[in-house]
Design goal:
The protein is of the alpha+beta class and 263 residues long. The chain contains six helices and 13 strands. The strands form two sheets. Strands 1, 2, 3, 4, 5, 7, 10, 12 and 13 form a nine-stranded antiparallel sheet that branches. The radius of gyration is 18 Å and the shape is globular.
Length: 263
Amino acid sequence: MSGVQSSPSRLSDTQLEQFARDGFLVVRQMADARQRERLAEVARTSLAPPLAPLEYETDVNYPGAPLSRTDAGGDTPRRLLHAFSRDAAFREWATAPAVIATVCELLGTPRIALSQNHHNCVMTKFPGYSSATHWHQDIRYWSFDRPDLVSVWLALGAETPVNGCLRVIAGSHRLEIDRGRLDAELFLRTDLEENQALIDAARNMELAAGDTLFFHSRVFHYAAQNRSEQTKLSLVFTYHATDNQPIPGTRSARFPDIELSAD
């Protein structure tokens, strides 16, 4: 399949230093027009009608989401789940040599695994009834030996502040945040001055279709509602080193990992 580069290209020292410092890295045009359109078409087909398994906006109770499935917009999807097993196009992207090589370099290991339990989805941000996700670290949901995972976020269309692009706090993966600075659901409390100083320094992750954001599981990030007239689609997978195992009995260990190698 054409699309993502067929032979891995080594990250520069500058890129590796940026990821270590900021906790994220954007690789522009990692997927070409043919591949991203194929991926977007699979996603659109899975949404018309919505094909299970999926998560609805009402399931998360985030700001802006309909209160129940019977309210206006109550049938708005939030995520198409289990992307890896949904379609070969998703699997080909998730295991593409350039993607795997990049993740291996960022994690500092030649052997990684794709989690089928976390992300492994198409994020769907619909106009009108999409919700806002407050400032959080993804590792709050996950249980591993070490909190060192990398998520790969492929923009299938343009992502801007208008349609709810991610905002990230550079370097926040290296911070130790006291529990009192988080609310009951482990979001950053916006009523605290020390947190607001962090939030004020956040950056918008504006992406063009085909751009890919690699970000650490401890990076604080946020996404606003989609205030455009078009649905935003993003394909997201999460990876970890094979020696960083999910803790047995947690939802991080519910489905088997997909082991991969840069060899």
